[in-house]
Specification:
Layout (H helix, E strand, L loop, with lengths): L12 H5 L11 H4 L10 E11 L4 E4 L5 H15 L10 E6 L10 H4 L3 E5 L3 E6 L2 H14 L1 E4 L2 E11 L5 E7 L7 H13 L4 E5 L20 H13 L3 E5 L7 H4 L22 H17 L5 E3 L20 H21 L3 E4 L18 E5 L5 H10 L2 E7 L13 E3 L2 E3 L2 H5 L2 H7 L4 E7 L12 H12 L6 H13 L6 H18 L1 E4 L8 E2 L2 E2 L6 E4 L17 H4 L1 H24 L7 H37 L4 H33 L38 H6 L1 H18 L6
Parallel strand pairs: 2-3, 3-5, 8-9, 8-17, 9-10, 11-12, 12-13, 13-14, 14-17
Antiparallel strand pairs: 1-7, 4-5, 4-7, 6-7, 15-16, 18-21, 19-20
Helix pairs in contact: 3-5, 6-7, 7-9, 14-15, 16-18, 16-19, 18-19, 19-20, 20-22
Length: about 725
């Protein structure tokens, strides 16, 4: 699907930001009382008083309530607040399951997630309609605890009654270009449960060691034992770990291997398998079965069907390759997979999209879930899915092709003003339902194409989840503030501004580069427009300042004129980056949760700073060259001093890169395994997808972040500068460099 779906252009951004959908209205009573619950609860009745909670309170689980939920409350309260509730005092926290706790909810799946918290000075009662509801009740209780002093927390007294508007809240783990450590993913599950996410679409590609075809696995692939462990841990937190397998397209991770090359839709491309080849279908079903076996107890399977551009192009397909037959081939594939999955107890989620034609939607099986329902889909498309009985997830991509950091907030992106991805989310479910869409949940996509760190995705995952729990409240600004308070702790400061500054620095990095015809990649196979169309690859780079010519130092400068706007912007942005560093550094001692997240943000800020400083210093170097050229004939010593100053600046650029990159790697890989490194005797077969050109795939390792700088060949340029300096020195009887 379109990774950028959907970041709206903002020609009327000022009017939009004043509209009721912009999140500019009043705060909730809970926020005004100084507390937050995420997602924002449906009903809050406060009496204006508060009570204090500490370790003198006794935790009591009534008969019929889950011991595991009691244990989870103790474990997470210790982690988050240092509370274990082990005392036997008179003040009590009671846990209870009662099917009549919250009534009047029409959807049984939503009713099962309902809870109520009743808070008085001597007693806190947390009730759930079912176990899942009680589990969500304890998450909200832990969120309400606002520190007053060490070990002492304040709670507002009153009643909170809550349930979700939509039964499914899916977030996206895309691991095509990286692999987190097991402890990282368990930490992520803890925090996703804290925000009441109940499903993860786990896109694996070669990050799973498929028992039926071990050669597909990359060096850091998850074993079956690890997948079973993650599945079990997620289920304990009421989260379904849904396998997502890219097929029949995006299969370069499989079709790059010689053993499977004969299964390609076209021998010229490793992008897609032949959908009319039974051996290819058997391979895909083997991969599906391997992950069904590794995720016991999960109800769903995400079969992808993502960007199947060339359905039916294979020589083994009998029908002519036309738009109609391409669509029918896609329909036949998805229906076949759906029936196969149903026999194995899984309900199918899929990207119901191109090349499917609107008139073919009603040919699809009724129980398929469309995972990519969004505003760009036409009214005819929505109507046809309704006729087919297809339920949908409201899709929002929280990251698409942005480099370094997502476009959460309004910004200039690719020459256009956009409203930002958070504004895309606000009110989206309501907009889709107004058009008649049958929305049963949300899908918060976070693509790995550009190689962002997963720590940058939390605000997006949480925001999409917020507006699946309560469709139209709270206001967007409050939702963001609530997230910051709870993810980092009430003591954090300026986090929204930090995110905005990081975003602007990332957009500077992305917009900086010249886009030149690629010298690293051949022309691709094709695009959604067809074979051979739109397949030109580009490289990102900058032209270095022209060197003076020895021995007279004649010069034709071009860097400062060519990149004047970027140089000026770098000079301005460095001050903002300095403040960003100060704010992040201060918060490392203020936050009570997720300090590692700040470490990742600091690493990104350092790369942004290095980018700005490099541009600024290259401009200074060219200024030195121009001054040296003017002095070359009349004052050789001055000219030499200027050349040496320029050389020192070039050394500084390279030295700063080494310092920045060492720290960047150290931070990045605390939560991840090294990218594509050989492991356990397995060598990584590094072959690029010949349709997609992902930024994160341009280097085998993490060096894709530095690829634009590498193409500038700064080290080689510096050596050439040294030759100019030494030749000028010889000409004027001065000591060489």
């Amino acid at each position: 699907m379109n990774r950028t779906l959907k970041t709206k252009v903002a020609p009327f951004i000022f009017l939009f930001m004043l509209s009721p959908l912009s999140g500019q209205g009043t705060l909730t009573d809970l926020r005004l009382a100084g507390h937050a619950i995420f997602p924002c609860p449906q009903k809050v009745e406060l009496n204006g008083e508060s009570t204090v909670v500490d370790n003198s309170w006794q935790l009591v689980a009534e008969e019929g309530s889950s011991q595991s939920i009691r244990n989870e409350l103790i474990r997470r309260s210790q982690e988050l607040h240092g509370l274990d509730f082990s005392a036997k005092g008179s003040r009590r926290i009671e846990l209870r399951i009662s099917p009549t706790t919250v009534t009047g909810i029409s959807d049984p799946a939503c009713s099962a997630q309902a809870y109520r918290i009743s808070i008085s000075p001597q007693k806190i009662l947390i009730e759930g309609n079912e176990e899942m509801g009680l589990f969500y009740g304890i998450q909200s209780f832990m969120q309400l605890l606002k520190p007053v002093s060490y070990g002492v927390f304040k709670l507002p007294t009153g009643t909170i009654t809550d349930w979700p508007d939509l039964k499914l809240r899916v977030i996206h783990w895309d691991t095509k270009h990286h692999r987190e450590k097991m402890e990282t993913l368990k930490r992520y599950i803890d925090w996703l449960a804290y925000f009441k996410v109940n499903a993860i679409a786990f896109e694996l590609e070669d990050k799973y060691a498929y028992p039926s075809h071990p050669i597909i696995a990359g060096p850091n692939a998850f074993s079956r034992k690890e997948m079973e462990e993650l599945t079990r841990y997620a289920k304990e937190h009421f989260i379904q770990l849904i396998p997502s397998v890219q097929a029949p397209a995006h299969m370069g991770y499989v079709l790059k291997h010689e053993e499977f090359a004969h299964l390609r839709a076209d021998q010229e491309s490793n992008y897609q398998a032949c959908m009319c080849n039974e051996e290819a279908m058997d391979l895909i079903f083997d991969m599906y079965q391997d992950l069904i076996d590794a995720t016991p107890g999960v109800d769903y399977f995400f079969v992808s069907t993502d960007e199947v551009y060339y359905a039916g192009i294979c020589d083994q397909c009998e029908k002519e390759y036309t738009a109609e037959n391409r669509s029918q081939t896609w329909v036949d594939y998805l229906n076949r997979v759906n029936r196969w999955m149903n026999k194995r107890g899984r309900r199918v989620m899929a990207w119901v999209e191109f090349p499917l034609l609107t008139e073919h939607i009603t040919k699809l099986d009724q129980n398929i879930i469309d995972g990519i329902m969004g505003s760009p889909k036409s009214q005819d498309w929505v109507d046809e899915e309704n006729k087919a009985g297809i339920e949908q997830l409201a899709y929002n991509s929280m990251q698409g092709e942005e480099l370094l950091f997502p476009n959460y907030f309004p910004t200039l992106y690719r020459g256009r003003r956009i409203i930002g991805r958070l504004n895309d989310v606000f009110g989206e479910v309501t907009r889709l339902e107004t058009r008649g869409a049958n929305i049963i949940g949300s899908f918060a996509a976070a693509w790995d194409d550009a190689g962002l760190h997963s720590e940058t995705f939390w605000l997006g995952w949480a925001t999409v989840t917020q507006y699946a729990w309560t469709k139209s409240t709270p206001e967007l600004q409050q939702s963001t503030a609530d997230f910051m308070n709870l993810f980092y702790g009430y003591g954090s400061q300026n986090m929204t501004q930090i995110y905005r500054t990081l975003e602007e620095g990332a957009r500077y990095y992305q917009a900086l580069w010249d886009k030149v015809p690629s010298k690293e990649r051949e022309k691709g196979y094709g695009s959604s427009f067809g074979k051979g169309i739109g397949a030109d690859m580009i490289d990102l780079t900058l032209q270095m300042p022209p060197l003076p010519s020895a021995p007279d130092l004649s010069l034709k400068p071009s860097f400062r004129s060519r990149y004047k706007q970027k140089i000026d912007e770098a000079a301005r942005s460095l001050d903002e980056n300095e403040l960003l560093f100060a704010q992040l550094t201060e918060n490392t001692t203020r936050v009570s949760h997720n300090a590692y997240n700040l470490e990742v943000l600091l690493a990104l800020a350092s790369l942004e700073r290095y980018t700005m400083e490099t541009v600024y210093n290259l401009a200074r170097i060219e200024g030195k060259f121009e001054a040296a050229s003017e002095a070359a004939g009349s004052d050789p010593e001055k000219a030499m001093d200027l050349l040496l100053d320029a050389h020192k600046l070039s050394e500084k650029i390279l030295r700063n890169k080494e310092i920045m990159w060492s720290c960047f790697n150290a931070s990045w890989y605390k939560s991840r395994l090294p990218k594509n490194q050989s492991r356990n005797g397995i060598e990584y077969l590094y072959v690029l997808d010949d349709v997609k050109d992902h930024f994160a795939d341009r280097r085998k390792g993490l060096e894709y972040m530095l690829a634009p700088f590498e193409r500038m060949k700064i080290e080689e340029w510096k050596m050439q500068l040294e030759e100019v300096i030494n030749e000028y020195a010889r000409t004027h009887d001065m000591p060489p460099l």
